[in-house]
Amino acid sequence: MVPRIAEVSVQQGDSSGGGKQVSPAHEACHSMQAASSEHRDGLRCPAKKCAGLLKASEADYNFRSGLETWVCEACGHRGFRSREGVIHLFRGGYEFNFSYGPSTQTITVVLSSAAVNLWSTHGVNEERLAKMAAEWTLLCGNTKKPVSLGLPSEEFADFYLYSCGD
Q1: pLDDT, tens digit, 9 for 90 and up, residues 113-128
Q2: 3-class DSSP state of 120
Q3: Are 102 and 110 a contacting pair, CB within 8 Å?
Q4: DSSP tag of 139
Q5: Distance between CA atoms of 20 and 77, rounded to whole angstroms?
C-alpha cells in the first residue's frame, strides 16, 4: 500500500460566523497557570479576600508525603504543593483520583456535568479541570477531604474565582 499525504491549509484571522471568539481558559483566566506544577514562586493565595502571594517554604518539605508547604506572606495561610505535581490514578464517570509524591494518600475530585459544561466553554476538558481542582485543594491546605465541584456549591465558587483571578 502506498502512503498518501494530503496538504492542508488553515486560514488565520477571521472565523466563520463573524462572532467574537472565546479564548481558552488558560488565556482568559490567568491564575490557572499559577496552580500548575511549573511555577516555583509567587502563587496567589487561595484564602478568601487575600491578595497575597504564596512562597515555598523549603524547610517545610515533607519527604514522607512529598508535599512542599507554601505560606502566604500577607495572611499566613499555609497550603501544600507536590514537587512532582498531582498524578492521575483513575476515574469513574466524573470522579477522579489523584496521588502526589511518595504518599499513599489520594485526593478525590468529583465534577458535576454543569461544571464540566461551564469549563468546556473556556476550552478546559474534564481531565484538566479535575487536575486543576486537585492542585487547588492542596494549595487550600486540604489533603484528605474530597473536592466536589457541583453547582451550586461554595467550593465550586471559590475554585472558579481563584482560577479566574477574581
Answers
A1: 989 998 999 899 999 9
A2: helix
A3: no
A4: H
A5: 39
C-alpha cell at 166: 477574581
Q: Report yes or no: 70 and 79 within 8 Å, Cβ to Cβ.
A: yes
Q: C-alpha distances in angstroms, 143 versus 10, 15, 22?
A: 45, 44, 34
What does the block give as the cell for 37?
Answer: 506544577
CA angle 34, 164, 58 (to 5 degrees): 20
Q: Give the pLDDT confidence score for residue 158 in this predicted structure.
A: 87
Is residue 82 over pLDDT 60? yes
What residue segments make up the domains of the chain, in order of their start?
26-163
pLDDT band for position 135 (50/70/90)? Answer: very high
Closest CA to 159 of 69, 6, 31: 31
The residues, any chain, with a CB within 8 Å of residue 25's CB and separated by 6 or more, are: 32, 119, 122, 123, 124, 163
CA distance 90 to 1: 39
